[in-house]
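Hi V.,

Quick status before I head out on leave. The structure for the redesign project is tokenized and pasted below; the design run finished overnight.
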């Protein structure tokens, strides 16, 4: 007899399981089955048990204890919360750095950059540094000078004391698409310009904040004399760091479309005087 038939014969051979009364030796219950029947029974019970466990995990709160479950909504909410937490942490750091820099500007102390380190290195002799102009720097300066050759600013006073005689530089060339409107909480103007338009400082000053925020993207904020502060939002790239000294008309950023609250490439520009927002169009010709 072949080996396969012998194996099948052994597996299909019937066995009897009998239960007797221990005192009377009376047969109480018996079961006839083979090895194949036993294996089939165990396999069927295993499949039923596995199916019950899967249903229990899917349709009961037990699924919360399994981190590998495929819940896209849960992962999306966790990711959004992580972004909000990171943005909140960055805003807190920027606000702390802003307060420290304002105090430093008023007291004449060293200004710290975004890393929290002093801008000056005591091991470097800043007085004897030899600056060299690169060809790219010369071309950029020439381009800016040609663009601003016929760019006029106005110093008309609209009742704000202490601003008489101040000449503001135009921050960017373009079209004003959203005017100043405090009733809509729009404390500045939106300027739409050409792609990669250069953003320039309106006055001499010190960079207080140069960082990225979740709402307004790449933002740079400059402290000027006479308690004036200018803010430039939604930039594609920042060219200055916190603590840098800038001149009026100097390139500080590249116009872009960064941040959550934006619908296209533009510059959101604000001017603040003694904690009060001013209408830039009252002081600058765009």
């Amino acid at each position: 007899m072949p080996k396969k038939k012998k194996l099948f014969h052994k597996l299909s051979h019937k066995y009897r399981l009998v239960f007797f009364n221990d005192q009377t030796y009376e047969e109480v219950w018996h079961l006839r089955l083979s090895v194949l029947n036993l294996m089939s029974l165990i396999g069927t019970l295993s499949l039923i048990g596995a199916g019950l466990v899967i249903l229990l995990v899917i349709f009961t709160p037990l699924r919360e204890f399994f981190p590998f479950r495929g819940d896209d909504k849960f992962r999306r909410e966790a990711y959004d919360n992580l972004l909000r937490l990171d943005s909140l942490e960055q805003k807190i750091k920027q606000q702390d750095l802003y307060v420290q820099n304002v105090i430093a500007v008023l007291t004449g102390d060293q200004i710290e950059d975004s890393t929290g380190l002093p801008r000056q290195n005591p091991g470097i002799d800043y007085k004897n540094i030899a600056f060299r102009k690169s060809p790219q720097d010369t071309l950029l300066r020439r381009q800016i000078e040609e663009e601003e050759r016929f760019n006029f600013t106005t110093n008309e006073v609209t009742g704000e004391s202490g601003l008489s005689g101040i000449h503001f530089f135009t921050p960017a060339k373009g079209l004003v698409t959203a005017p100043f409107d405090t009733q809509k909480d729009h404390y500045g103007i939106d300027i739409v310009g050409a792609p990669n338009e250069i953003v320039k400082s309106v006055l001499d000053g010190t960079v207080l904040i140069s960082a990225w925020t979740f709402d307004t993207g790449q933002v740079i904020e400059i402290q000027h004399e006479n308690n004036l502060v200018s803010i430039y939002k939604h930039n594609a790239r920042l060219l200055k760091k916190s603590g840098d000294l800038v001149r009026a008309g100097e390139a500080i950023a590249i116009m872009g479309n960064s941040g959550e609250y934006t619908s296209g490439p533009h510059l959101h520009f604000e001017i603040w005087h003694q904690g009060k927002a001013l209408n830039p169009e009252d002081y600058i010709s765009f």
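Above is the designed sequence. The first helix runs from residue 3 to 12.

G. will cover questions while I'm gone.

Best,
W.
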